[in-house]
Amino acid sequence: MRQEIRLEIGPLAAWTPVVTKTVEPYAASYKPDLFEKTHTEIRMVSAARTFWEKATILHQEANRSKTKMPARYSRHYYDLYMMAQTPVKSEAINDLALLLRVVQFKQKFYACAWAQYEHATPKEIKLLPREEHMKQLKDDYAKMEAMLFGEIPEFETLLQGLKDLEDEIHALE
């Protein structure tokens, strides 16, 4: 066990806005004697940015043609659903300029014509997958359950929560 945090960030990741947060590994709460320090401060991308990053991933997938979705993509649906249950949702939906910056960043560095990022606006953003991807996404979600923490929402609950979130975002402007 090492006292470090591994961050997996691609070379084209945006780093704004940045916040400083205190983090503690789960293992430290069970075996604090194994750690010289049980917590540390890190600089990280704000959760509001991550919220809009996840929302635009879901928007991209909602516009995917009948091609197969990538493996383990159900995690993005789960992540956004879970974030929407926290104060992060309010922070994000009160910063629509951040959504615009995320969209512009993706258009520049992750150009994808079928993603239709130009429609990832409060009035038009799509968070639900196409009907033809539902079974694949549900199967993927079932395979990922071992990687999820705490009480795991049913797939249908996840979709309903995202539909409610989509409706809430559409009503913003």
Automatic annotation (TrEMBL):
<dbReference type="GO" id="GO:0016740">
    <property type="term" value="F:transferase activity"/>
</dbReference>
<keyword id="KW-0808">Transferase</keyword>
<dbReference type="Pfam" id="PF08843">
    <property type="entry name" value="AbiEii"/>
</dbReference>
<dbReference type="InterPro" id="IPR014942">
    <property type="entry name" value="AbiEii"/>
</dbReference>
<protein>
    <submittedName>
        <fullName>Nucleotidyl transferase AbiEii toxin, Type IV TA system</fullName>
    </submittedName>
</protein>
